[in-house]
Structures are given as C-alpha cells and as structure tokens.
Amino acid sequence: MDGGIFGELIVVLALAVGIILLFRRLKLPGVLGFIIAGMLAGPHALGWVEKVETVELLAELGVIFLLFVIGMEFSLTKLASIGVTVFVGGSLQALLTIALVAGVGMLLGLSAPAAVFIGFLVTLSSTAIVLRILQEKGKMDAPFGRISAAILIFQDILVVPMMLVTPMLAGKSSDIGGDLLRLLGKMIVLLVGVYVGGRFAVPRLLRVVSKGRNKELFIITIVVLCFAAAWATQALGLSLALGAFFAGLIISGTDQAYHATGIVQPFHELFMSFFFVSIGMLVDPALFATHPFIVVGLTALVVVVKTLAAFLAVWVLRHPVNTALKCGIALFQVGEFAFVLAIAGINDGLLTHAHHQLFLAVSILTMALTPFALAQSDGIARKVFTVF
User: Fold this and answer.
1) What pLDDT shows up at residue 270?
2) pTM score
3) What angle do CA 169, 172, 173 make, to 5 degrees?
4) What value does the mean pLDDT of the chain take?
5) How far apart are CA 93 and CA 91, in angstroms?
6) CA 212 → CA 215, 220, 223, 236, distances in Å?
7) Which residue has the higher pLDDT, 26 or 349?
8) Residues 319-336 as b or e (16 or more Cβ within 10 Å = b)
9) How many CB atoms lie within 10 A of CB 182?
10) Which of 386, 28, 307 is nearest to 16 (CA)?
11) Nearest partner of 122 among 150, 106, 99, judged by Cα
12) Is residue 149 a contact partner of residue 131, using CB atoms and an 8 Å limit?
C-alpha cells in the first residue's frame, strides 16, 4: 500500500476504530478488535500493511509500557501482602498447567521439549484483558479479583525464566547447570538494584524533579527511568519488559506514583494497540475455515485445562471453592506474553509454523470468550455446585 508506514498505520488504526465500535455493541474486548484489524490488514488477508517489522517495533514498546504500568499499580508493600498467593498459587497454577498440557501434547505425538514449551505458552493468561474487565466491573477488590490479579502478576514475571529456559529445551545449552547459576546471579543483581533504587535513588530524584513543577521534565524523567531499567535488564541478558516492571514497582513506592501513572497511561494504551495489531497480522484467517473442528476442539481443551489448574491451585491455598472456580474462569484464556514467548520458540525450533498458527487461533478464541465467561461467572459457579 502506498503512503509509507504512516499511511499504513492510519489505515490500520482507522479500521481498528470501526471494529472496536462494533465490538463495544457486542460487548467484546477492545483487545480483540485490534487483533481482528491486524488480521484483516495484514499479509494473509487484504495486505494493506507491508512493513510489519515497524509495527512489531512499536508493539515491543507497548509490552514495555504494559509492564511498567502494572509495576506502578502493584506497590512493593501490596506485593508483599499477597506474597503467598503470588508465589505459591502462581507456581501451582503454572506447574499444573504445564504438566497437563505437556501430557496431552505428548499423547498427540509432540516431542517432550515441544510439549513442555506449548505448556509454557498455555500457562500465560491475559493481564491486559482480565485486569481491565475486573476494573470495569468493580471486582478488583473481590477475593477472586485479588487472587487472579496476583497470579497474573506472577505469570508476567514467570515469562522471563521461561524465555531463558527455552534455548535449553531446544538443546542449545551445553551447560544447563552453569546457565541456571548465571541466571540466579543476574536475578540477585537485579533485586539488589531494585532495592537500592526504590529505597534511595528514585524517590530523591522524583522529589527534586517535581519541585520545579515542570511537567515536561517530569515526563522525560519517568520515561527515561522506564527505558533505562529495560535497557539494564536487557544488558544482563534478561527481558526488556522485566526491567520496565521493576521500574514501575520502584516508582509505585514514591509520593509521585499517581502522577506518573497518569502520564504513562496514554503511551501504554497507544503502543499496546500496536502490539495486538501486530499479533493479528501473524494470523491466517483461512485457518478458522479450513480446520474449524480442530481449532474449536483445542480451544475447549485449553479452557478446561486452565480452569481446572487455576481452580486446584487456589483451592489448595484453602480459599473457598466458589472463589477458586471464579479464579479458574478468569484465567482460562491465553495471554499477550504467550505471543512474545512463541516467537522465541519458533526461533529455537520448538514451534513449527503450522502449530504457531493453531496456537494463535486458539488464543484469539479464548480471549473472545473471556468477557462472556466473567460476566456469567457467578451463574456458572452456582450451576457447577448444584450439579456436584
């Protein structure tokens, strides 16, 4: 399409606006509208966008801002108060999901490393969709809302070791023990940096900057902190997004946290739209028509497995079964970080192009089902307990 990258972005975003307005009437998440816009405008459909790489670069910024905002919403104090749920519940949910998915994958003929990697992908739920729905419905402070949010945060952190373990699964590591020790050392360095920055450096810097009441200076400082932290973690061989998350976590403990959140939120919303558009561009819409029963069957399997795994993880922590089931319903979709991890799997040979297309199709359907399931979660819980 003529007009360069700006023309392409304008067309895609205009298409997304129309789709999202329609989706609002249908009570579907806006995230899904961006994915559909990418599918239609991408190379597999209308072919309006040729420079997909540029959109992917903007999408990477979206992931950074997403984790930055999440970090600012979860202060160190708040994170510590739900620590058991974060680490125990999150670990149980992840281990159960990976084990169940890997078992099914090997029964379907996948190799053990590929099956475990797909377990990694399916484990990750959508922070962007679930937290937004919980906020809109005023359920963030409900027991299942707090627990679901805690597990989502754990999953967002978990994606980093998953990305580091992926080359090992692919057989590209000659010294697994040494690699794990190096990873542990990097995480210790990172946590020390977070403690020092959160306790001493960043609060003082933001106090000095905010005294001048210069809005431009404050914006630049916040953005620099976000990207500097992301760059630092990348230099350690970790994820850009992890650095952004810890930068947000540090800022959340300062007096300027509320002001900083208001500044970053518009950037976050804009670049996240590019992220979901770029995911849509990877999907071949023909797959839904050529293999509908496979796509629907795998979607149902993912929904059941993830609901069961999250239910058991929360129930083991001695929460009421009603709360545990609602958490399972909230977390059954496949999330945005799974898309990021899938690219690493393709590069390392753990995910074929055909399996990637199936994974994307199933993920989109689980995302589409989420708002309806959450809206009916009370009724679903009642019916389940009536039957059993």
Assistant:
1) 73
2) 0.77
3) 90
4) 80
5) 5
6) 9, 14, 18, 34
7) 349
8) beebbbbbbbbbbbbbbb
9) 14
10) 28
11) 99
12) yes
Q: pLDDT higher for 244 or 96?
A: 96
* Nearest to 298, CA basis, from 105, 114, 109: 105
Q: What distance, in Å, lies between the first and last C-alpha atoms of the chain? A: 57
- Cβ-defined contacts of 380-388 (< 8 Å, 24+): 380/325, 380/329, 381/322, 381/325, 381/326, 381/329, 384/325, 385/321, 385/322
In this structure, what token pair is assigned to residue 85? 């749920």
pLDDT 10s digits, 293-306 = 999 999 999 999 99
Categorise residue 27: left if φ over 0, alpha if ψ from -120 to 50, beta otherwise: left
Q: What token pair was written down for 52?
A: 């997909």
The per-residue pLDDT for range 91-107, each reduced to its tens digit, is 999 999 999 999 999 99
Secondary structure of the chain in HEC code, one letter for each residue? CCCHHHHHHHHHHHHHHHHHHHHHHHCCCHHHHHHHHHHHHCCCCCCCCCCHHHHHHHHHHHHHHHHHHHHHHCCHHHHHHCHHHHHHHHHHHHHHHHHHHHHHHHHCCCCHHHHHHHHHHHHCCCHHHHHHHHHHCCCCCCHHHHHHHHHHHHHHHHHHHHHHHHHHHCCCCCCHHHHHHHHHHHHHHHHHHHHHHHHHHHHHHHHHHHHCCCHHHHHHHHHHHHHHHHHHHHHCCCCHHHHHHHHHHHHHCCCCHHHHHHHHHHHHHHHHHHHHHHHHHHCCCHHHHHCHHHHHHHHHHHHHHHHHHHHHHHHHCCCCHHHHHHHHHHCCCCCHHHHHHHHHHHHCCCCCHHHHHHHHHHHHHHHHHHHHHHHCHHHHHHHHHHHC
Joined tokens for residue 355: 């399996």
Name the nearest CA neighbour of 252 among 80, 68, 87.
68
Q: Which residue reads 């801002």 in tokens?
A: 65
Instruction: State which of 111-120, 254-263, 273-282 shows the largest mean pLDDT.
Output: 111-120
- Token pair for 231: 């760059």
